[in-house]
Amino acid sequence: xxxxxxxxxxxxxxLQTPADLYRKLHFEVLTxxxxxxxxxxxxxxxxxxxxxxxxxxxxxxxxxxxEAGKLDLLDTLAARKIKGRKDFGDxxxxxxxxxxxxFQLATAAKHFGxxxxxxxxxxITSIExxxxxxxxxxxxxxxxxxxxxxxxxxxxxxxxxxxxxYIWDDVLVGLGLLEKDAVR
Length: 184
Fold this sequence. Notes:
This protein has helices at 3-8, 18-34, 40-67, 72-78, 85-95, 97-111, 157-174, and strands spanning 124-129, 144-149, 154-156. By secondary structure, the protein is mainly alpha-helical. The protein has a domain at 17-114 and 158-174.
């Protein structure tokens, strides 16, 4: 392993840049999406790992742009002045229902609760029957799914992390922190 990488942040193994953390997220998403465990506890763990990685990307992005002297790119992304790391997270949670869900799940995992909700509906997680329309012979034992709901949105945990992958891919490419089509 490169000594420079070890000295930069030895606590993250070989993950040193937002692109590295995004590749970890992408790996988690593909593993979950292509090989979903039939064990709902394992699936919940996989969803929480991916959601936590997705939410932490905001800090990695802020740090990378700050070190490069390019924080003004966040102002362009937000179409307003971003006043700091916390403000960037607030912007993401307020402007994307999917990143707000990500914020709530990751924060609850870290602190056992969410203290700020930005006036948005609270997220509810559940395990529900996921019957497919038009299939009268649904095997109910095999159709349970981890679901994430708000007042206005409902999405499976697997689809949520896939959507977060697409959001971060677009943001990182737009900020110049990931080469277009570098991961896909």
